[in-house]
Amino acid sequence: MAEKPLKYSYLLLVFIALTIPSTSNHGLFTLKSLTFLTSIQFFFLHLMFKKKMLKSSLKVFFISSASICFLLFWFFISQFNGSIPGTVAIDQLKLFVLTLYLPLLSLYLINERIITPDQIVCCAIYASMAYIFIKLLTLLLHSLHLVDLPSLVRLFNLRVMSMTIFNGVARIQFSTDIATPYLILFVLFSEKLGQKISGKFKILYLILSLISNLISYSRFLIAVYFISLFLYILSVPLKEKMRGALIACSLLISLVFICGPENFYNGFVDRYTGKSTQISDSIRIEQSRSLLKEYQATPYFGKGLGGYAKDSIRSTTGNFNMHSYEVQWLAFLMQFGIVGILLILSPICLIAFRLIYPQPSLISISFLILFALWIGSGFTNPYLISMQSGAIYTLFAIIPHQIHATKLRFA
Asked: Is the pLDDT of residue 410 over 60?
């Protein structure tokens, strides 16, 4: 009875997660929060009418319960230590819950045959395309002086990273930009994975996502974009390899001429060797030292949820996200200790194992490498816990279902 509302509220949540950037205050009455709460309500309504549950669904409930116990245990550790404000611990607790909700609910819905992996992946792809289109359209209107982007950012209280790329072009990166380069591989392999996405849509997505990604001006995300293209080219027959390489080269050459060779070169060199980059890297090095120092004080169980290094606080916005660091894995090590880190790595290793079990193929290995890049992003950027991060974990968690369903076991 409540299956359809649950299904569509879930798909709406995936769509919202990948189209609406995060706000600065993580408020309860934001669109993301309200969609999340609506989805939970429909889930509990569904459970009320549920007469019998599959064994596989019970496993998902067990994992969910274990995850909640894990988070509560480390929340109490932080409060027992007494040095971490409750608001900071609660903020990180909320981020973990938002991250875990989407992949766990997706596995439950797939097991109960309420939704298919194809529907989830298609929803994520179209959500990403919608975000890219809205972002680029807004930037175009801003350049024509029809819209004032800074006013919109202030109006909706959005979190944005900005800096000059070259004359007349500025970096604009929102939280939702982290998904774009990872979805490239899902778009390119969509036909082989059973999704009906046209070739024209793929080409349009490649072009617009490249422009959006370069405007985001993130070294890591730009690298992931081109690695995704490279993995696709390696994983297909020779004819498609040549076609993919031709498209990639055409995109890059076109972009160089649109920007101007000199501007493109200067922007590229400055991003990797410029003064602002050196400052950014030095901050990460300083954070690493401070976090490792804090870790050594409590190596086994860490400081608990919300933990931070007092001599290296990345952000004090609203006095609730002091737990957030660019070197996120070291922050987790400091917060959860070696015991907590091993527990966190358990489901990550399980997802990685399922991507190549029982027989690896070039396609499954490509997704495994992409997943490793996603997990590795936590060494340089705070990407790993958020609602949009939950959507990305979901895609990697369900891709084995599609690989098995379509029997993609060829080399």
From this structure: no
CA-closest candidate to residue 175, choices 2, 16, 397: 16
Angstrom CA distances, 338 to 59, 66, 200, stand at 26, 18, 48
360: region left, alpha or beta (phi > 0 left; psi from -120 to 50 alpha) = beta
Distance in angstroms (rounded) separating the CA atoms of residues 10 and 141: 32
pLDDT at 125 over 60: yes
d(CA 403, CA 384): 25
Quote the DSSP letter at residue 396: H
What SS3 class is residue 23?
strand
The Cα–Cα gap between 17 and 124 comes to 9
d(Cα 231, Cα 187) in Å, to the nearest integer? Answer: 13
Distance CA 32, CA 351 (A): 26
What's the DSSP call for residue 21?
P
The closest alpha carbon to 394, from 102, 96, 101, belongs to 102
Q: Express each pLDDT in 181-217 by its tens digit.
A: 999 999 999 888 878 888 889 989 988 998 899 888 8
- Residue 171: both structure tokens together: 């970096």
First-last CA distance in the chain: 44
Residue that has been written with the tokens 């875990």 in this structure? 100
Sign of CA dihedral 66, 329, 224, 261: positive
Question: Which phi and psi (to 5°) does residue 157 adopt?
Answer: 55, 45
Residue by residue, DSSP assigns 132-193 as HHHHHHHHHHHHTTSS-HHHHHHHHTB-EEEEEEETTEEEEEEGGGGGHHHHHHHHHTTTTT
